[in-house]
Design goal:
alpha+beta; extended
């Protein structure tokens, strides 16, 4: 089993585990963490060894600098990020016509 970090957030227990798939929609760093990553010799080196160029650009540098954790499966919705702004979606519905786009 992957290493686990457990604690309490807003009065509820939550656990984080090292993921099999580290890909994430976003990562959040403190200023200190960003300075640490930026000081690494591989920062912005464009290395594409992790799966492919897109996956490497999104994840590889931060994976090399830090141990990544994600919410454990029972807490999977803890870091839920909504990627779709409804204002853009309404504009796209009125302006664009894609075959599979919901109306």
């Amino acid at each position: 089993m992957a290493p686990t970090l457990s604690g309490e957030v807003l009065g509820r227990p939550i656990s984080f585990r090292r993921p099999l798939n580290p890909n994430a929609g976003c990562f959040f760093l403190t200023g200190e963490q960003m300075a640490h990553w930026a000081s690494r010799p591989y920062f912005l080196d464009r290395d594409t060894r992790f799966v492919g160029p897109i996956e490497s650009a999104a994840n590889f540098g931060i994976m090399r600098a830090f141990r990544l954790y994600k919410p454990a499966p029972p807490d999977a919705t803890f870091f839920e990020v909504e990627h779709l702004d409804t204002k853009w979606f309404r504009w796209a519905q009125a302006t664009c016509r894609w075959p599979d786009m919901p109306q």
